[in-house]
Amino acid sequence: MYKPLLTADDIYKKEFKTGLRGYVIEDVDGYLDQVIKDYEGFEREIERLKRELEEAKATPSVGIKREERRPEPDVPTVPSNPSNYDMLRRISNLEKAVFGRPHQEE
Questions:
Q1: How far, in Å, CA of 86 to CA of 31, rounded?
Q2: To which H or E segment does residue 22 belong?
Q3: How far apart, in whole angstroms, are the C-alpha atoms of residue 55 and residue 36?
């Protein structure tokens, strides 16, 4: 993977020295050379990723091993016919999670 020479913050904070006629041309040219190298690197990386994506699309996914797949999160099963007690208990648990303690009237 390509590691850029400059970050957006580096570019934003860059200050050039000034001479009699404005900025020192060598400083500006050197800095722009770094920016150009970054853009060229990004373009190469984008092309590589596009090729990799096309290869992945062309390759059937049947060959993926079970271990390579992401494990699916455990989702608790909800009974198809919950009772009022179950629903009230869930609501109470949600209230405790949101408000921290049961609501008390003064």
A1: 66
A2: strand 22-23
A3: 29
Domain limits of the chain?
8-63
The closest alpha carbon to 86, from 75, 78, 76, 96, belongs to 78
**Residue 14: partners with Cβ closer than 8 Å, 6 or more residues away:** 31
**Per-residue pLDDT tens digits of the chain, which is 106 residues long:** 677 787 777 877 888 777 777 878 888 888 888 888 888 888 888 889 999 999 998 887 655 555 566 666 665 665 556 677 777 778 777 777 777 765 555 4
**Residue 35 CB coordination number (10 Å):** 15
Between CA 58 and CA 54 the distance in angstroms is 6
Tell me if 75 sits within 8 A of 38, measured CB to CB.
no
